[in-house]
Amino acid sequence: MFGAPEALSFPRGRALARPLLSLTLVFLAADLLGGVTAPAAAQSDSQIVAARAWPAPDYTRITLESQEQLKYSVLTLKDPERLAVDLEDIEVTPALTALPEKIGANDPYIKGMRIGRPKPGIVRLVFDLKSEIKPQVFTLAPIGDYGHRLVIDVYPLEPPDPLLVFLDKLQAQGEDGAAGAATESAPQVPSVRSVPRRPDTARLIIVVLDPGHGGEDPGALGRRGTHEKNVTLAIAHKLKARIDKEPNMRAVLTRDGDYYLPLQMRVEKAQRVRADLFVSIHADAFIRPHARGASVFALSEKGATSAAASWLANRENAADLIGGVNLQGKDRYLKMTLADLSLTAQINDSLKAGRAVLAELGGINALHKSDVEQAGFAVLKAPDIPSILVETAFISNPDEELRLRSPAYQNKVAEAIFNGIKRYFAKNPPLARDRVALLK
Question: What is the DSSP string of 291-351?
Answer without folding.
Answer: ---BEEEEE-SS--SSHHHHHHHHHHHTHHHHH---TT-GGGSPPP--TTS--HHHHHHHH
